[in-house]
């Protein structure tokens, strides 16, 4: 009887011992190692991907640099050949070439608009006597023309007003270069020479001053 009780008690103690975790501490060390190995593997793969990207970028930069260098070399070669051809041209041929370039620029130049813009800024006491185109070029994709403009007027105030109108219009930059007094049997007037830079556009044209516009009109009377 007592033996049976002792046996049952021993079985219970054995079960309690099995449930007591403190008696058998956690000794599964494989899982941390596996986790660390997985992290190292992921870091290694990420590093390999970064190295591959860097290598691709480096190769791309080298290819682009080679293309740029080849393009610069070709541009230098073409410039050299162009300069050689230009040196072989006679002065007459150079003039023809320059005229051809100006003709190409003239296609984008509106002569009718130039005359209309000049008329808008020119007072009634001033008349244009001649227009000479010195140079036509493009500046920031905008056509500009350097002109030598000759005007005649009986009074200098009208010419001053015309220059002021030009400056205010946003289309012209004008400066007086010279003046020459002209006398005829019927009248006395002065011919003025101006250097003008004309920029075609849609800028505001300054209105003419009424008192100057009502003066006697200039002209070769």
List keywords for this structure.
single chain; 221 residues; alpha+beta; Alpha-Beta Plaits; 2 domains; 4 strands
Please provide a brief summary of the model:
This protein has 2 domains: 27-88; 109-213, Alpha-Beta Plaits (2-Layer Sandwich), CATH 3.30.70. 55% of the residues lie in helices and 22% in strands. It has 6 helices and 4 strands.
| Biggest β-sheet: strands ordered side by side in the sheet | 1-2-4-3
Low-confidence stretches: 202-221
Radius of gyration, CA atoms, in whole angstroms = 46 Å
Number of helices: 6
**Number of strand segments:** 4
Major sheet description: 4 strands, antiparallel
The CATH architecture designation of the largest domain is 2-Layer Sandwich
- Overall outline: elongated
Percent strand equals: 15-25%
What would you say this structure looks like, in words?
The protein is 55% helix and 22% strand. It is an alpha+beta fold and 221 residues long. It has a four-stranded antiparallel β-sheet. A hairpin with a 2-residue loop joins strand 1 (126-139) and strand 2 (142-153). Mean pLDDT is 75; it is low at 202-221.
């Amino acid at each position: 009887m007592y033996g049976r009780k002792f046996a049952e008690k021993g079985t219970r103690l054995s079960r309690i011992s099995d449930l007591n975790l403190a008696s058998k501490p956690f000794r599964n060390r494989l899982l941390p190692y596996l986790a660390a190995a997985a992290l190292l593997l992921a870091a290694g793969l990420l590093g390999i991907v970064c190295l591959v990207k860097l290598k691709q970028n480096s190769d791309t930069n080298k290819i682009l640099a080679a293309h740029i260098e080849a393009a610069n070399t070709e541009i230098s070669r073409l410039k050299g050949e162009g300069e050689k051809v230009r040196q072989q041209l006679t002065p007459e041929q150079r003039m023809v070439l320059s005229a051809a370039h100006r003709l190409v620029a003239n296609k984008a130049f509106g002569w009718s608009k130039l005359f209309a813009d000049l008329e808008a800024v020119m007072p009634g006491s001033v008349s244009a006597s001649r227009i000479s185109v010195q140079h036509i070029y493009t500046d920031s994709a905008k056509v500009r023309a350097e002109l030598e403009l000759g005007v005649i007027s009986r009074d200098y105030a009208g010419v001053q007003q015309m220059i002021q109108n030009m400056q205010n219009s946003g289309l012209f930059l004008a400066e007086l270069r010279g003046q020459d007094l002209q006398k005829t049997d019927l009248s006395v007037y002065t011919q003025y020479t101006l250097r003008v830079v004309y920029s075609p556009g849609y800028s505001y044209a300054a209105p003419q001053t009424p008192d100057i516009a009502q003066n006697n009109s200039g002209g070769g009377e």
